Amino acid sequence: MILIACIVLAAGCTTPTPTATPATPTATAISPAATTPSAPVIPDLSGNWSGTSTGYMYQSGYRVFNEPIMMEVTSQEDLLFTGVFSFPHRDGTLETKAFAAVLSDDGKTIKDIEYPGGFSDGIIVSGEEIELIFRDEASPSTICIDSIRRSTAAPAAATTAPPAMPDMKGHWNGTSVGYTEQSGYQLTASPVGMDITEQDGRFFSGTVSFLLNNTPVKKEFAGIFGRDGKSFVTIENPDGFSNGIVISVNEVKLVFRDNNDPSGISIDTFVRSGASPTPEGKAAVRLTGTWPGTSRGYMETGSGYGIIRGDLTMNVTTQEDRLFAGQVSYIVNGTPSAKPFAGVIGSDGRTIETVEFPGGFGDGIIVSDREIQLIFRNDGTPSTIAIDTFRRAE
Fold it and tell me: What is the pLDDT of residues 247-283, one digit of tens each?
C-alpha cells in the first residue's frame, strides 16, 4: 500500500554553530553501560554481481531455461537500493531492466520490483552471494532462481548440500477461502484441485483446477522451493502467484494472489487423498480500525526510479479470522485517492499478505498489536516499491 504524493530529492544544509567557551570539566562517576542488542548491520550491496538464472518460462507449457544474468547496484540509501539487471542473449544482444529493492530490517532478505515487469524475493546468502526467486505474471509467465555473486568474489567454496526436497508429485484435493473483487472485495469459498506432474529437486510444475463464477477453470503453474525445503513460491499462467509452505508430507498451504481482473486473494489448503487438514491454531489478531502511516520507497518515472515519501492511512473495515479487507487512502498530486484491498494473516499469526484493486500487493509483518510494516509492490504502471509503516490510531 502506498501513496504517491511527490518525488522528493533529499538535500541538506549546515548552519554555523557559535563558538562557546569550554565548560570546566566536572568529575562524574560513570555507571557501566547497559547491555543493549546491537543494531543489525545493513550490507553495502553496491557494485557488480553476476551469475545464472534457472527456472521455467511459459512457451506452450512451462519449459526449463538456464541463462547468464548480471546485476549492478548503482545506488543505496540505507534499506533502499536501485540498479540494473542485464541479460546477455545468445545472438549477441544485451537486454537490460531497471530495478528498485528493499532490504528487511535485519539486512538478510530482499524484495524487488523490476521495470517493465516482474518482481523478486530473495536472501543474502553471504557478503558475496545473493539468491533471488524472480516471478513475472506477464507474457511469457516466468519463475526462476537467480544465483549471483560479486564480480570481485573468490570462486565459491564447497557449500553444505541443501536439505532433501519434499516429493510433491501427485494429486492434491483442496479448499480455497478468500476475497474476490466484485464491486468491492467479497468473501468466496470453493473446492480446488492441484496435480503436480513434474519435479526436479527444487523445481516443480503442474496444473490447478477450480471454479470461477461456477465455471470450471484449469491453469498451468510452476513452482520453486526455498533453500529450507519447506517454503515455496509459484506462478500461474496466464496470471496469479502464490506463497506456500509444506505442513507435512500430506498437506500444503498457500496464499494465492491475483493482480488482474478479477483481483483476488485466498487461503488454499491442499491434502493428499485420504488425509485431513491440520486444524487452525490460535485466533488471529484483530486488525479492524484505522491505521495512519508513512511510506517511503521508489517509483519509476520514465527516466529511472525516483524516491517517494508521504503519508497514508489504512482502514480495516471487516475481518473474518485470518481474512480482512478495507481501504487505503493517500494523496496523488494533491488529490485524495483511495483503493480497496484484501489481506490474509499467516498461520503464524504474524505475517501478512495483501492485494489491492486495481493493482499492487503487499508483504509484511504485525510488529505488535499497534504496529504493522508492509513492503508494497506494483509491477504494473507506475512500477513501485515502498516500505509502509502503520500505527493503530488511539
Answer: 999 999 999 999 888 899 999 999 998 889 988 777 7
Residue partners of 38: CB distance under 8 A and separation at least 6: none
Q: List residues bridging with 332 in a β-sheet.
A: 335
Residue 23: pLDDT band with limits 50, 70, 90: very low
pTM check: above 0.70: yes
What is the second-level CATH architecture of the domain 47-150? Beta Barrel (2.40)
CATH superfamily of 170-272: Calycin beta-barrel core domain (2.40.128.20)
Q: Note whether 306 and 285 are within 8 A (CB).
A: no
Residue 38: its pLDDT value, please?
Answer: 62
Cell (9 digits) for 66? 538456464
Tally: H helices and E strands in the chain: 0, 24
- Give the Cα separation of 53 and 123 in Å (integer): 15
Residue 241, C-beta contacts closer than 8 angstroms, at least 6 positions apart: 135, 137, 233, 234, 235, 256, 257, 258
- The CATH homologous superfamily for domain 289-391 is Quinohemoprotein amine dehydrogenase alpha subunit, domain 2 (2.40.128.120)
Ramachandran angles phi, psi of 118, nearest 5°: 105, 160
User: Which whole-number Å values give the CA distances from 150 to 48, 120, 122, 384, in the listed order?
Assistant: 6, 18, 16, 26
For residue 101, give Cα distances in angstroms to 109, 138, 342.
Answer: 10, 20, 24
